[in-house]
Amino acid sequence: MAARSPGTALVVGATGISGQTICRRLVDAGWRTYGLSRKTELPVDGVTPVTADLLDADALREALRGTAPDLVFFTAWMMQDSEAENIEVNTATLRNTFDALAPENSVKHVALMTGLKHYLGPFDAYGAAVTAETPFHESEERLDTPNFYYAQEDELFSGAERLGFTWSVHRAHTIFGFAVGNAMNMALTLSVYATLCKETGEPFVFPGSETQWNGLTDVTDADLLAEQMIWAATNENGADEPFNVANGDVFRWRWLWPRIADHFGIEPVGFDTEPRPLATRMDDAPDAWRRIAEKYDLVESDVTRLASWWHTDGDLGRDMECLTDMTKSRKAGFLGFRSTSESFAENLARYRDARIIPR
User: Fold this and answer.
1) Is 108 known to be catalytic?
2) Candidate list 34, 108, 117, 150, residue with the active-site label
3) 351 in active site
4) DSSP string for 79-110
5) Candidate list 34, 108, 119, 149, residue with the active-site label
6) pTM
7) pLDDT by residue (tens digit) across 93-109?
8) Closest CA to 35 of 93, 21, 291, 220
């Protein structure tokens, strides 16, 4: 099967960091692109909004009527209070989408974005039962603990068998990217933190663990993730396979942290004795950011719409080495890569150009 020519695509979760990036790439490549979210307006030009709640099966069916996508990119998830609730809700979103699309029988491929909790375990058992050696490989056995990523995969497999589409799963690590109105993005969170440090005179202290400071790790550029998902959806070597997706380089935070600081003209402070999480040090951030936004005429004065302290703390606070192997997708023909330091710099430049971060 040759690579598919541009047709119609549906991006579920079109306002997220990954969804926005996939939308941009699809539009640029000539795909008629629908973006599904609960919002009536989307941040990417050229995308047709589809407004619906993924948990409202009837409304979703009506909203998707007539879209008839060839490809579906599923990047949405909804965090709940327990893993049992995560499983219930995040499988229902997939099932409802497949049910809504079934009558038109148009779907050829569904690409599902998950992440490294596939190897590390769910939020409420995070890192407690890791059995695989790093770098993680796609062939690792599932952990013996409930995990909504596993449940999502099973729902995907069931939908593929029922509706006859091929599938791919994309296990991203920490994502660096450009997105408007989405705070779960380490590149933006660290940029906000560095800006606060520069303006208030506070030190740019690494918030995470000694393991993360000194150990090897990797991250995923959002553009690279979009490239891999579109590649898998349009090429036969990407069909019916799970793939890790990371930039392809590895680094230590003790190396990257000073390079981030250089972009802001501030002094970096490394790990010392114990983690110093951002969530415990950002009580004054809302007021401070409002002053910064007014001073530099920024487009967003609400820091909670830009930074996710807990999410970055979770990634940087892990007390285990965490990196993935990319051999499988390279052998299949996906040869994309990114420099992590350049990825951060490029995304920071985009945030500055958009007046989200001051120059």
Assistant:
1) no
2) 117
3) no
4) --SSHHHHHHHHHHHHHHHHHHHGGGT---EE
5) 149
6) 0.94
7) 999 999 999 999 999 99
8) 21
